[in-house]
Specification:
The protein is mainly β. It has strands at residues 20-25, 31-36, 41-45, 50-55, 62-67, 73-78, 82-89, 92-100, 106-111, 117-122, 126-131, 137-142, 149-154, 160-165, 169-174, 180-185, 191-197, 200-205, 208-213, 218-223, 229-235, 244-249, 254-258.
């Protein structure tokens, strides 16, 4: 755990016996959850650097985990397509339910701001919205094209979800009905990050940054020049028409881009 301003290491958390694949931090910064190849989750107290609960219920490698905005439960997914939801309480954490949501590995997980439902995206390109109390599927989003769903992002009002795929395609969906609203083609490969910002849909791929209006008009293309983009994040800054994009490149460099879009029509 590192301090943001001084970059001093506060704690080194030890407890996993195999590779740590994923971790998440609660909105108030008090809790961290980590998942590893051994199929185990550990819930940590970030202020003191101690394990609070160890959860050993997955039979396969844990590749996704999130702490709910309400901070009273955790969602975890493994490479066999099993999703587990854990109640956090004064005694640690207990399993709320376990359900197989996919027959393959899942690549992305989101939890709604009110913590009543979550989204999972899998290698077959299927996105499922599930009730966080029961695990019941509430809507399913599946595009006609066959490509792995790599990432997804909710609009600010959480009525739409944007998904990015291995073949460079993006799709905008109605969260409640599961209806596809628009499909976008980057002409690139591997959408590593995406975002819906007001009237804009953005994608970071290995070959560049792309932006459309939600009606389907492309308004910006920023190609990478010397090295593939390997990872990225889109930050709204509170101004949808001028977000900041941070990308990591294959050659080890990191770029910070301030983008200015024309007014959406």
């Amino acid at each position: 755990i590192w301090g943001i301003t001084d970059m001093i290491c506060r704690f080194t958390l030890r407890g996993h016996a195999d590779y740590v694949n994923v971790c998440d931090i609660s909105q108030d910064g008090e809790w961290i959850v980590s998942g590893s190849c051994e199929g185990r989750l550990i819930l940590w107290q970030s202020k003191i650097g101690k394990a609070y609960a160890e959860l050993e219920s997955h039979n396969a490698s844990v590749n996704l985990c999130r702490i709910a905005p309400s901070q009273d439960f955790i969602v975890s997914c493994d490479e066999d397509g099993v999703v587990k939801v854990w109640d956090c309480n004064s005694n640690g954490a207990t399993l709320r339910f376990s359900v197989e949501q996919s027959s393959c590995n899942m690549n992305a997980l989101l939890i709604s701001l009110d913590s009543t439902w979550f989204l999972v995206c899998d290698m077959e390109g299927v996105i499922k919205r599930c009730n966080s109390k029961t695990g019941e599927r509430q809507s399913i989003m599946h595009a006609d094209f066959k490509s792995a769903a790599l990432c997804c992002s909710l609009s600010e009002d959480e009525t739409q979800v944007l998904s990015g795929y291995e073949d460079g395609t993006m799709a905008l969906w109605d969260v409640v009905t599961g209806q596809e609203l628009h499909c976008f083609f980057t002409g690139s490969s591997g959408v590593t990050a995406c975002a819906v910002l007001n009237s804009y849909c953005m994608a970071i791929t290995r070959q560049g940054v792309f932006c459309w209006t939600t009606s389907g008009k492309r308004v910006l293309t920023y190609p990478c020049d010397n090295s593939d983009f390997t990872v990225g994040r889109i930050i709204s800054n509170g101004i949808a028409s001028a977000p900041t994009v941070v990308v990591g490149c294959k050659d080890g460099t990191v770029l910070s881009l301030r983008l200015d879009f024309p007014p959406a029509q």
